[in-house]
Write a structure and sequence with these properties.
Order of helices and strands: HEHHEHEHEHHEEHHH
Strand order of the largest sheet: 3-4-2-1-5-6
Number of helices: 10
Structural class: alpha/beta
Strand content: 5-15%
Shape: globular
CATH topology: Undecaprenyl pyrophosphate synthetase
Number of strands: 6
CATH superfamily: Decaprenyl diphosphate synthase-like
CATH class: Alpha Beta
Helix content: 40-55%
Length: 252
């Protein structure tokens, strides 16, 4: 773990991760792509444990994008099977460790078996408060904004920043302070487009199956070294309240 005195007051409240590189990890080892996805589950287990140890309240991961349906049918089918298997294996442990699960995303088009698994996992962990784990599945940032606007329009409500925020798929948590993308790509790929307006971005060459606590700590250290201004000058930030300097409210 990083020096906790050095990071005191600067740990993010909400870390988001684009878990990229599973397929390339497998291909480098002459393994089928699904083997990389299985190792990706192991990496997520490590990172969840690390966030609990570091008392980071919210972790959001990009597990399956709305564009991933364009992948080969065999890979998509394997991902769905892996999700069901992971839910059955991981939820009891997550529940026992105080993790609350949410699955933001469009559930239309998902099989009945998958939807039932998501609903049951959310229900069984609803009482937990140590860590909110958002696993974005069949999620896209543009879809999120559009579905929020449709809900407001259907109710005849005015569409404002505040009202739209309340209808987004992650309205139950503050906006991410830090977004990490593994795998060497330098983009956010339709992930949390609205919520990441003031998020600090960290990109790493590390492929997701190899990502662990030490990699997380390096990203946390980089985050701690950033100056977050939220449109203010550096001088104003120096005079601001400490909470604003390290994250602030959703729209500080």
């Amino acid at each position: 773990m990083p020096n906790q005195d050095a990071l005191a007051g600067s740990l993010p409240r909400h870390v988001a991760i684009v878990m990229d590189g599973n397929g390339r990890w497998a291909q480098k080892r002459w393994l089928p792509r699904v083997a990389g996805h299985k190792q990706g589950v192991e990496a997520l287990r490590r990172v969840v444990k690390a966030c609990l140890e570091r008392e980071i309240p919210v972790l959001t991961v990009f597990a399956f994008s709305s564009e991933n349906w364009n992948r080969p049918v065999e890979e998509v089918s394997s991902l769905m099977d892996l999700l069901v298997l992971a839910l059955s294996r991981e939820v009891p442990s997550l529940e026992g460790n105080g993790v609350r699960l949410h699955f933001p995303g469009d559930r239309h088009g998902l099989s009945k078996r998958v939807v039932q698994g998501l609903v049951a996992a959310e229900r069984d962990t609803a009482h937990n408060h140590k860590l909110v784990l958002n696993v974005c599945f069949n999620y896209g940032g543009r879809w999120d904004i559009a579905q929020a606007a449709r809900k407001l329009a259907a109710q005849g409500l005015e569409i404002t920043e505040e009202s739209l925020n309340g209808q987004l798929a992650l309205a139950h948590v503050p906006d991410p302070d830090l977004l990490i993308r593994t795998g060497g790509e330098l983009r956010i790929s339709n992930f949390l487009l609205w919520q990441a307006a003031y998020t600090e971005l960290v990109f790493t060459e590390c492929l997701w199956p190899d990502f662990g606590p030490a990699d997380l700590d390096r990203a946390l250290q980089e985050y701690a070294n950033r100056e977050r201004r939220f449109g203010q000058t550096a001088e104003q930030v120096g005079q601001a309240e400490p909470l604003l300097a390290v994250g602030g409210d959703r729209h500080a």
